[in-house]
């Protein structure tokens, strides 16, 4: 009888140090529970992909962008000249001084430098757009990494991809601005080359001033589009805060705008440029 009871017992008796099932089954159960937890978390997040705070934050981002663009170009009566407006006066003066210069090699070198700088930023935005598309292909991996961070990043794949598409739109806007600026700088060099020499004209120099004004106007337009593209690059840094939440987006956008406002209206560069400069 005793031997029959022993034979009925399992080969491995349960103990507090040994589970009733093997480790492989335990891992499967744990992974299944974790997946169910992630699925329920993502399902609850999908119900709140875009909240009212998100709409408020993106509206603040757009308003800050538009308002700063108007203020930096002195389209609003703020009573203070911006750095961009001061530089526009020197762009005009440069064309008129170059028109009366006998040797203009230095001016053509400056124009070539402006074109090269614009081409560099245009190429940079193309790489940034490619990086964003690569980020879309690795959404699950990015969210898995973000889940381990102590920062509350976006947990919904759809919301994450929407925000990445917004970043792509910003870089695409910057690319078109840089591309058009490069084209305008190219046109400026052509108009600059069409400025007649000082000794080939009568003493009134009316035609010389008219040619210089044409080149200066196109130079100003090229600089305006370049500044717009550069402004988009700066604000894309603030846009990254949206991946951490709407309030972070509002804070990062405000921080970027404050930095840009200081550089435009309260920097040492502005004071140096405005020294002995007449602004009409």
Explained architecture:
The structure is a single chain. The chain is built from ten helices and no strands. With 280 residues, the protein is mainly α. It folds into two domains: 21-50; 51-274, no CATH class.
Span from first to last CA? 115 Å
Overall geometry comes to elongated
Low-pLDDT stretches: 1-48
Strand fraction equals under 5%
- Helix-strand pattern, N to C? HHHHHHHHHH
Summarize the structure.
The protein has 280 residues and is an all-alpha fold. The chain has ten helices and no strands.
Features:
single chain; 280 residues; mainly alpha; 2 domains; 10 helices; disordered N terminus
Topology of helices and strands:
Layout: H1 2-8, H2 23-46, H3 52-72, H4 83-99, H5 105-136, H6 139-147, H7 157-193, H8 206-239, H9 246-265, H10 268-274
